[in-house]
User: Which sequence fits this backbone?
């Protein structure tokens, strides 16, 4: 691993287009570009709203943003503690393996610790072997007995009775 100076900071409204670009790059990396409906307006309404529901971290090397993490609070009734849900973690390809992803997770862990969170959770694509290896190296357990459940789009309206 090369010795790079990584700075992690909270994203600001001025970073809106940069975050949108990272989301687009991540959707391409995940092979889900066709599902991308994010726009600058929608991102501004949800990421930079009050009360603050979602937070973003940016990783910078040499003053240039090279990765991001998007997360929000959740809760565990079993732990009776708040938790953090990591929705996105992305590092641009040339900087992978340089400690950027680790720095983002470490910063997130510091937030979790300072707010008495019982855990940090996220999903990883089962086909993303490098990602799985990276997360396990950071101390994550990959839970095989839990499946993601999802209702989206028209299904929400149908379930709501509309």
Assistant:
């Amino acid at each position: 691993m090369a010795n790079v100076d990584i700075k992690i900071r909270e994203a600001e409204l001025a970073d809106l287009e940069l975050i949108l670009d990272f989301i687009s790059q991540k959707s391409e990396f995940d092979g889900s570009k066709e599902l991308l409906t994010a726009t600058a307006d929608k991102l501004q309404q949800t990421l930079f709203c009050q009360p603050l529901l979602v937070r973003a971290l940016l990783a910078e090397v040499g003053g240039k943003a090279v990765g991001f993490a998007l997360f929000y609070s959740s809760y565990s009734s079993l732990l009776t503690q708040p938790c953090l849900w990591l929705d996105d973690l992305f590092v641009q390809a040339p900087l992978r393996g340089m400690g950027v992803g680790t720095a983002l997770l470490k910063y997130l862990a510091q937030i979790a610790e300072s707010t008495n969170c019982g855990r940090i959770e996220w999903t990883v694509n089962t086909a993303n072997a490098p990602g799985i290896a990276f997360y396990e190296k950071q101390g994550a357990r990959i839970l095989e007995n839990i499946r993601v459940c999802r209702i989206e789009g028209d299904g929400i309206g149908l379930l709501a009775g509309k």
User: Anything to note?
Assistant: The chain has one domain: 6-159. The first helix runs from residue 16 to 29.
